[in-house]
Amino acid sequence: MKFFIDSAKADEIQYALEMWEIDGVTTNPRHIRNSGKPFLQAIQDIAALVQGTDKPVSVEVNPHLDDPDEMVVEAQRLAAMSPNFVIKIPATDAGFRALRTLHGEGIRVNVTLVFSAIQALQAARLGANFVSPFIGWKEARGEEVWGLVTEIMEIYRNYCYSTEVILAAVRNARQIVEAARRGVPIVTAGFDVYKEAFDHPYTQQGLRLFADFWDATPIG
Ligand code: E4P
Fold this sequence. Notes:
The protein has helices spanning about 10-20, 30-35, 40-50, 70-80, 95-105, 115-125, 135-140, 145-160, 175-180, 190-200, 200-215; strands spanning about 1-5, 25, 55-60, 85-90, 110-115, 130-135, 165-170, 185-190. The chain has about 220 residues and is α/β, with parallel strands linked by helices. Erythose-4-phosphate binds next to β7.
């Protein structure tokens, strides 16, 4: 299973690359805003962190765009900036139209803001490299999400689509584990989610206990 970090903060991404061997990065306009940097500066800094690796960095087109041709132009401009960049295109009619063109040009696309299996199917049909179902947004509204995830995985297997699911808006370790049980190839989660997920209070408690025994024992 691959772990991507959902962030545009260079310090978080660097830590995740060095300490957790993270496999890729996803950004969105909210993360860029939270980085405190202008858009182009933020994505260039991320590109520098993964330069020379094959780790993908998802970068979203301007969300105001609703014309497929304009989306394509913006996607081409972004894709030319780094070989690591994968272009995030929304799951809308305009987005799907742009996806078809970009796929034909060999520009990698992550179809974002996916909330239904049929959107994921359409994305795969048109050649998306990645598709991002936002499970956290659905769960926050009290919706069950694992039926959706299972359906998407089943559909992709049935037709041998090479589109990879990036489970997005992941909020906790349990969701990562549930995704892994269903064979989801990639999750993307924020820095704090991984930090909390990789730790366990019993591990810390055990360390303190063993440290006390260590201190009470002569080394020899
Ligand atoms: C995924 O690619 C998205 O950037 C992300 O998961 C969106 O969700 P969030 O910003 O609410 O976490």
